[in-house]
Write a structure and sequence with these properties.
Blueprint lengths: L4 E9 L2 E10 L8 H59 L2 H10 L11 E5 L4 H7 L2 H21 L2 E7 L2 E6 L8 H13 L1
Antiparallel strand pairs: 1-2, 3-5, 4-5
Helix pairs in contact: 4-5
Length: 193
């Protein structure tokens, strides 16, 4: 059967071809009058805008996904760096002092009537440090100080600081107690062993 009417309207947006509206009518010759073609052109323009909006929305969704991923990666990096800085802070200061500094931005001085201080120093440190690499030296000190931290914490001692090969901790702080001297002696004996 032959076609009576055919119309093909381009779907354009800013002179960019997005698609086409193709219509056939087998029943009526000249079905696509100029008025009807104008309506079809308006419909084609609306279709072009809808298609463009759908593409923009898809691109926007992709950009949101990518931006969210970037933000999450940056948040993870920031969290890792925060953990590193916290660990460094805890390595330098006592835990209670570091926590107070983190929470308020400053540390209020406190008076303790009775405390016991334990100070360690490695015998022959200068000679040993000349014989190994800086990396080996740092690794060795870190292992020792981590072990000292565990021992001190076990006996209720509070690490004050480390400087070079020196390790200092105190008993009777941050919570005063009557057995601080005993804790210092027990910590020293276990460190020495």
């Amino acid at each position: 059967k032959s076609l009576s009417s055919i119309s093909c309207i381009p779907v354009l947006l800013q002179s960019k071809l997005t698609g086409a509206i193709y219509l056939e009518n087998n029943l009526l010759p000249n079905a696509f009058t100029p008025d009807r073609v104008e309506v079809l052109k308006l419909l084609a323009a609306q279709m072009a805008i809808s298609i463009e909006n759908a593409l923009l929305y898809r691109d926007l969704e992709q950009k949101v996904i990518e931006r969210t991923r970037t933000i999450e990666e940056q948040r993870d990096i920031i969290e890792q760096e925060k953990q590193k800085s916290d660990q460094l802070l805890f390595n330098i200061l006592s835990r209670t002092t570091a926590e107070e500094l983190k929470s308020s931005g400053k540390v209020e001085p406190k008076l303790f009537e009775q405390v016991s201080i334990l100070f360690t120093d490695f015998q022959g440190f200068s000679r040993i440090s000349e014989q190994i690499t800086p990396q080996e030296l740092i690794q060795s000190l870190n292992e020792c100080f981590l072990a000292f931290d565990e021992i001190a914490e076990k006996h209720g001692m509070e690490r004050i600081k480390t400087i070079g090969d020196a390790y200092m901790c105190a008993g009777g702080i941050p919570v005063p107690n009557d057995h601080h001297a005993y804790s210092a002696v027990m910590t020293a004996m276990e460190i020495k062993a």
